[in-house]
Amino acid sequence: MLRRLVVAVGAIVLVAAVPAAQAVAGAHARARGAVHVKRACAVPTSAGEAACYALVRTDAGGRPLVSTALPKGYGPAQFHTGYDLPTTTGTPQTIAIVDAFAEPNIVSDLNTYDATYGLPKFKLCANLAQHDCLAVLNQNGKKKPRPATNGGWGLEIALDVETAHEICQNCRINLYESNNESFKSLETSVDTAAAQGADVISNSYGNFGHDCAPNAAYHHPGIAVTVSAGDDGFGVSCPAVMNTVVAVGGTRLNLDRSNHYLSESVWAGSGSGCSTKNTARPWQTDESTWGAIACGTGRGMNDVAADASPATGAAVYDTFGFGGWVTVGGTSVSSPLIAGVYALAGNASSFAYPARSVYLAPGSDLHDVTTGNDGACTHLLQCHAGAGFDLPTGVGTPKGMGAF
User: Fold this and answer.
1) Is the pTM of this model over 0.85?
2) Cα–Cα distance between 128 and 88 in angstroms, integer?
3) How many CA atoms lie within 13 A of 378 on its CB side?
4) Domain residue spans of the chain
5) Averaged pLDDT in 10-residue chunks for the chain of 404 residues
6) Three-class secondary structure assignment of the chain
7) If we measure between CA atoms, which residue out of 66, 57, 79 comes closest to residue 311?
8) What per-residue confidence (pLDDT) applies to 10?
9) Partner residues linked to 137 by β-bridges
10) Around 78, how many Cα atoms within 13 Å sit in the side-chain half-sphere?
11) Of the candidates 29, 119, 268, 381, which lies 20 to 30 Å from 61 by C-alpha distance?
12) What pLDDT was estimated at residue 34?
């Protein structure tokens, strides 16, 4: 059935800088609208490196807003009620989290997170066959040696593990701490995760503006490889631009006082765009809006989306780099969130390319985001939301797990 094309053009969000001297990991501090944020990780200096996409909330002077008492930001109740998700899966699933460097406090931080929200204590995995547990591994899938530590990537690790765990609370989580932020190391972790039985692999990092060619490390049929779309607005990001992964854009998720869904709009920082090095899959080109998107034969980034706005960011407990509770946004939130939804559904192995499932789903299984934009572009659906498939939000956001 053809879907009526309606393009809602939102106001472009201006990005104002705050003192760069106070930036985390040497990255730029900035504000989006009335919300001040800064990058957790430094911007890549070459095409061979990636940055994590976590954005931490700050005050106007660039100082992180840290609480040692109660969390601010969205937690399990907001995401589960807002997206109408169960808390557990009936089929044992393993979510792999791929990041760089080590987070020495991740076990104790996750224990505090669970205790705060009333979730069962999450044990360390005794072996590869155990479920409902956390395994902390290096890029080769071993417990030792662990790589060097890094405060910015440490926050990313806390965000990814806590978000994936809060979405699928009885899934096994394998955290792969890569030696460094090079794609070579990160790709080794992705391959190891696939070899060690991951059902879903979440990647909350990338190189914005890099339209990279297909890469075997991100091609694992039957495994949902979710990748963040980037935090710099309109434009592609590697590896999200690859046609073998599930590219996840960002939204602002608005809830009522009971945490029920009210609306969503494109988060202004979300990446989106067309690839010239990756071919679009048939499930994209079959969409009724494909001609208006105007990617030609190139892959359109993104496939789906989820909350990423720092204004509605996730509550994260991180004692290693930040000393307590912080609110974190960026598409680093949306990738592990969608990874958790794929794990709840337990259906990724039914598809060579699990991204296909969301295109086959009826519209009632997704929230169609129709407002907002992530910048300026010639063909509006590349950077503006509209009815049906658009690049900032793909085919939509979770409305239950039926689309996954």
Assistant:
1) yes
2) 20
3) 3
4) 15-398
5) 30 28 34 78 96 97 94 97 98 97 98 97 92 97 98 98 98 98 98 98 98 98 98 98 98 98 98 98 98 98 98 98 97 98 98 98 96 98 98 98 97
6) CCCCCCECCCCCCCEEECCHHHCHHHCCEEEECCEEEEECCCCCCCCCECEECCEEEECCCCCECCECCCCCCECHHHHHHHCCCCCCCCCCCEEEEEEECECCCHHHHHHHHHHHHCCCCCEECCCCCCCCEEEEEECCCCCCCCCCECHHHHHHHHHHHHHHHHHCCCCEEEEEEECCCEHHHHHHHHHHHHHCCCCEEEECEEEECCCCCCCHHHCCCCCEEEEECCCCCCECEECCCCCCCEEEEEEEEEECCCCCEEEEEECCCCCEEEEEEEECCHHHHCCCCHHHHCCCCEEEECCEEEECCHHHCEEEEECCCCCEEEEEECHHHHHHHHHHHHHHHCCHHHCCCCCHHHHHCCHHHEECCCCCECCCCCCHHHCECECCCECCCECCEECCCCCC
7) 57
8) 31
9) 176
10) 19
11) 268
12) 72
Query: pLDDT per residue over 50-61, tens digit each?
Result: 999 999 999 999
CB contact at 8 A, 50 and 190: no
Superfamily for the 15-398 domain:
Peptidase S8/S53 domain (3.40.50.200)
Give the amino acid at 59.
D
Rounded Cα–Cα distance for residues 14 and 349 (Å)? 42
List the end-to-end C-alpha distance of the chain, in Å, as a whole number: 20
**Contact call for residues 338 and 81 (beta carbons, < 8 A):** no
- Tell me how far the alpha carbon of residue 19 is from its chain's centroid: 27
Residue written as tokens 């989580």? 173
What are 330's two structure tokens? 């960026």
pLDDT at residue 26, as a whole number: 33
The letter for the amino acid at 162 is E
Q: Which residues lie below 8 Å from residue 151, measured CB to CB, with a gap of 6+?
A: 24, 25, 40, 320, 321, 322
The pair of three-digit structure tokens given for residue 290, joined into one six-digit string: 């494909």
* Residue-level pLDDT at 141: 98
